[in-house]
Design goal:
Length: 325
């Protein structure tokens, strides 16, 4: 039997672990790491010192003609809804009370819609003229503006919100008298509005084209005004107004707006309206203009009032109301 030859035997080999680097190389790496760390710490200190030593930023100084900061943003109601056409001016005084033809005619300027911007109210107060403030009853700054006006001797009216024909598309704002109210509801709301500003001398309507054409509700309103000895000035936002005959029923001290001065915010327009106001005053002995708390209106009035006062006497609204006839 033949023998089989065994092949050469394979010896198992061990893997050798790498030799550690020399000791001096390890020391070099440690020293290098320390040097890098020291450099980073020093650099961070230099940067921090530079930042800390920078001068503080200069305060922002507004330009001299920059507008004053406005009051906090509150949602303002719309100003009056102006009639599509001028309502004819009626004589304001009965014949027996026609003024001396040599006397200056009396003009009252009412600033409506106050209560949302104390800064513009202060500007009108700075005019130092006997203008009249008509203040909305439930605006954020109603009481503040009323107090300042009282301090300055400026006459105050309640700018009474009333329902317009355009409601509900146009909302007259909080405290409005609405045609759907019962007599008790309407009177209670009116008295709440009046109680907000105890020093009011009179009332005029804010909007109100629907309510001022409703005689039964006007009777309810005017009965309260008569009890409180307050006058009423019709803003005449509709040619269908029944305020004059209704005031006559109660012998209420009464008058009507002649001109809106600034429903177009253009300085030349406001000047022309002011001249129209003087013309009406010369024909009828007195006139009433209504303006609004706009900065342009303030600037124009500030510029033109000294000249206008050569031809008219500027008076509070209480001096141009009389028992309705």
């Amino acid at each position: 039997m033949a023998r089989t030859r065994k092949g050469p035997s394979k010896k198992k080999t061990r893997k050798r672990s790498p030799k550690p680097p020399p000791l001096r190389f390890q020391l070099f790496r440690v020293v290098l790491g320390l040097v890098v760390l020291i450099v980073l710490v020093v650099a961070a200190g230099v940067i921090t010192h530079h930042i800390v030593s920078l001068p503080p930023p200069a305060p922002v100084v507004p330009a001299p003609d920059a507008p004053a900061p406005s009051a906090p943003a509150y949602p303002k109601p719309a100003f009056e809804i102006y009639p599509d056409r001028d309502i004819p001016v009626l004589p304001r005084l009965p014949e027996s009370r026609t003024p001396n033809r040599f006397a200056k005619p009396k003009v009252a300027i009412i600033i409506d819609d106050l209560g949302y911007d104390p800064a513009i109210a202060e500007r009108f107060l700075s005019l130092g003229r006997p203008i009249t403030f008509s203040i909305l009853p439930h605006a954020p700054y109603t009481r503040k503006i009323a107090r300042e006006a009282d301090t300055m001797g400026v006459e105050i009216m309640l700018h009474l919100p009333m329902e317009p024909d355009e409601y509900p598309h146009v909302n007259p704002g909080p405290g409005a008298l609405m045609s759907a109210m019962s007599p008790d509801e309407l009177i209670a709301q009116l008295e709440r509005n009046l109680d907000v500003i105890p020093t009011v001398r009179g009332v005029n309507n804010h909007m109100g084209s629907r309510l001022t054409a409703n005689s039964s509700q006007l009777y309810q309103i005017f009965s309260i005004l008569k009890q409180r000895d307050l006058y009423f000035i019709d803003s005449r936002t509709t040619p269908n107004t029944l305020c004059r005959p209704s005031a006559h029923m109660f012998k209420l001290r009464f008058s009507e707006r002649d001109i809106f001065l600034d429903h177009v915010q253009d300085p030349d327009f406001i000047r022309r309206q002011s001249q129209k106001l003087i013309g009406i005053a010369k024909r009828h002995g007195q006139a009433i203009g209504i303006a609004h708390p706009n900065r342009l209106t303030f600037r124009v009035l500030r510029d033109i009032l000294p000249e206008l006062e050569k031809d008219m006497e500027l008076v509070p609204a209480s001096q141009v109301v009389h028992p309705a006839g």
